[in-house]
Amino acid sequence: MPTLLHLDSSIWPSGTSMSRDVMATFRGEWEARHPHGTVIYRDLAGEPLPHLTGDVFTAGNEDPLRATLASELEQADVVLIAAPMYNLTVPSTLKAWIDQVMVQGRIIGEQPSAAGTPVVVVSSRGSSYRPGTPRDGWDFVVPYLTTLFAGYFGITEVEFIVPELTSAPKRASRSEHIRLYEASRRQAHEDAVTKAKELASRFTKRPG
């Protein structure tokens, strides 16, 4: 049975957090197809990991926490990551996971042990950073994670689901964006379902 590694990082609870809700849609679709599979779950905001220190960095794979995180990543057939945009980049809690899990000679190095694992990233954001918008070029989530996974983890299959304008319902000045927000939200959930189905099908045994 396949294993899904599910990492939430939003500071907001389900029902309030767009990334958590879209992540839940993906996971629900995945589990419907693999009800006996394994899900490794970490709430990086609810139970944050410690930031990397010099001693822990030096210990590498000998550090129990880093070894555990590396093992969880290695076990995963698919990795599902919430990376809501906070101040133009990823949450510090997600960055702590990245720093801890990048064990030299195991996760990164000449033969990265999780190379080739598909990754799905849900990156919600309050505004829009698409080409042609006023904030075009301000997105430091998608380029960072794309480069990081390809350059260090040996992971080139990284799919981004990007619900935008999540602050529109909360700000009267952006009320004209509510329609675009609703469309983006619907599309994000649809994309989560589609991607979960596609990835789950890779691990479904066919008769004969």
Automatic annotation (TrEMBL):
A UniProt-annotated Pfam family: Flavodoxin_2
All residue ranges annotated as the Flavodoxin-like fold domain in the record: 3-179
Name of this chain's protein: FMN dependent NADH:quinone oxidoreductase
Family listed: Belongs to the azoreductase type 1 family.
Cofactor: FMN
Gene3D superfamilies cross-referenced by the UniProt entry: 3.40.50.360
Positions annotated to bind FMN: S10, S17, M18, S19, M85, Y86, N87, L88
Species of the source: Streptomyces cadmiisoli
Record-linked InterPro entries: Flavodoxin_fold, Flavoprotein-like_sf, FMN-dep_NADH:Q_OxRdtase_AzoR1, NADH:quinone_OxRdtase_FMN_depd
GO MF term list: electron transfer activity; FMN binding; oxidoreductase activity, acting on NAD(P)H as acceptor; oxidoreductase activity, acting on NAD(P)H, quinone or similar compound as acceptor
Domain of life: Bacteria
